Amino acid sequence: MLDFDGVLAHYSRPARLAHLARVAGCTPARVSEILFDSGLERAYDSGTLDTADYLQRLGAGIGITIDADAWIAARVAGAQADPVAMELVASIASTVQVGVLTNNGALMLDAIPRIVAPLFPMLEGRVLCSGVLRVRKPDRAIFEQALAHFDVRAQDTLFVDDLFVNVQGARAAGLHADTVVDARSMRTVFRRYGLLPGSPAPPV
């Protein structure tokens, strides 16, 4: 299981805010205030707000109607896929199940295929968002839901994330887990767990 932002793609909050600010004709600081300072984004990522309410509150705050397409366009503008990381993931997908577990709202289910298009359709139906599951990493419950979705056992699953607190949460749920911050560290972790050709036997 892979985190998304910071693992498969580089996320730039400033670029995302700048895109929305241009659309709304306001400042990036105003967008940040409505989206992040108010707790709106976290509520959506946590599943306590549905998409319609979230978009309505965002639009009302920045003074323009924001639909799903506009939101996705801004999210794509704030993300840059890591081509080497994608190649590494594609290289192991023929021998192991691969899925994504991300702290994001439901709209990311439509944004992710646009950001890391080469990994689709391989990842179709294999992206889980905290906003849909209604619980965020590092809560143990999100990992338990993910394991059930993918029908795998914790002891047979490797989780990678750029935030160590989420790695700790996965380990507490019984998964193998490690920190990955770029393609180089991803390769190192994949080799450590025997996922790449020529790798040593994985740890037990």
From TrEMBL:
Report keywords, A-Z.
Hydrolase
InterPro entries per the record? HAD-like_sf, HAD-SF_hydro_IA, HAD_sf, PGP-like_dom2
* GO MF annotation terms: hydrolase activity
Keyword Nucleotide-binding among record annotations: no
Asked whether the UniProt record includes Hydrolase among its keywords, one would answer: yes
Q: Which domain of life is it from?
A: Bacteria
Query: Which protein, by its recorded name, is this?
Result: Hydrolase
Q: Which organism is it from?
A: Luteimonas chenhongjianii
